[in-house]
Design goal:
Layout (H helix, E strand, L loop, with lengths): L2 H13 L5 H30 L9 H8 L3 H13 L6 E6 L5 H9 L6 E6 L4 H6 L6 E6 L3 E2 L3 H11 L5 E8 L2 E2 L23 E4 H6 L10 H9 L6 E11 L7 H15 L6
Parallel strand pairs: 1-2, 1-3, 5-8
Antiparallel strand pairs: 3-7, 4-8, 5-6, 5-7
Helix pairs in contact: 1-10, 2-10
């Protein structure tokens, strides 16, 4: 038995004792997790084959130069924002956890969307902060050091203005100039959410949907993944921003065993049958 599998089984045994109502859901969750990881591996291999003819995929800087919003477009956004009737507010909480908080704040102060606000504090204060926000606003939770390009909150607000039924807006990111090596699906995949967090911290959620899902739980091993599991939006309720306008300090991963209860609850919420 591999070390990872042993860790998962020990964690499941502690969190969900044999015979407990949640044990069956956890069993299905673990199977789904494994299948999801295998699917990601197969997809990654398929992508690698596409470049087996000697061509190399563009480096991050080249790719971002083609996909990032340029100065002319930023100017147009600023002019549009100044007279826009769009009332959408975008609120960002920066978790002060020994990272370079000032860098995050600076990126938020430079947003072209004027109805952007931010707050800095410990992770434990996020639930109380969300309680103070307008129900029709969008909210984002970043770690100290995470940044977003100047156009992000404008584009988030514009997506919601275009489709008020949206629950979630996501975007790609990089870490220290390196793109995420994981396969990034072009559309939202609810099944993938059961085996990994495809959005990381790079997403904005509508406040009323966050509250309906039970809020942000700072005690979770991965509060962002936990929230997405409970939110569980349908693909047509999710928009994705082109390019990689997010820049994060790390990609913290919760141990699979620690997220089994959350995945099991998501399965139960979907009404999927459990096996013992």
């Amino acid at each position: 038995m591999s070390r990872a599998r042993a860790v998962v089984r020990r964690g499941a045994a502690r969190a969900l004792p044999p015979g407990s109502p949640g044990r069956g859901y956890a069993s299905v969750a673990l199977d789904t997790y494994r299948e999801g990881r295998n699917a990601l591996r197969r997809l990654s291999d398929s992508v690698a084959v596409l470049h087996d003819d000697g061509r190399r995929p563009p480096d991050l800087a080249t790719w971002q130069a083609r996909t990032r919003v340029g100065p002319d477009e930023l100017t147009r956004m600023e002019q549009t924002a100044a007279t826009s009737a769009n009332p959408t507010q975008v609120h960002v909480f920066v978790v002060a956890d020994r990272g370079p908080t000032a860098r995050s704040v600076r990126s938020l102060e430079q947003q072209v969307w004027p109805r952007t606000a931010h707050r800095v504090g410990p992770l434990s204060e996020v639930p109380a902060w969300t309680d103070t926000l307008p129900s029709d606003a969008m909210c984002v939770v970043l770690r100290a050091g995470d940044t977003i390009d100047r156009d992000v909150t404008f584009r988030v607000a514009d997506e919601l203005w275009s489709d008020p039924a949206l629950h979630l807006v996501t975007w790609d990111d990089d870490v220290d100039g390196e793109r995420d090596p994981r396969f990034a699906p072009p559309t939202w995949a609810p099944e993938l959410l059961l085996s990994t967090n495809p959005a990381g911290r790079s997403f904005a959620v509508r406040v009323d949907r966050l509250r309906a899902a039970g809020g942000f739980d700072p005690s979770s091993a991965d509060p962002w993944w936990d929230l997405l599991l409970r939110l569980d939006p349908e693909p047509h309720r999710v928009a994705h921003l082109d390019g990689a306008p997010g820049h994060v300090v790390d990609r913290r991963r919760a141990a699979a065993a620690s997220m089994l209860p959350a995945v099991g609850a998501a399965l139960a919420g979907r009404g999927w049958p459990a096996t013992a």
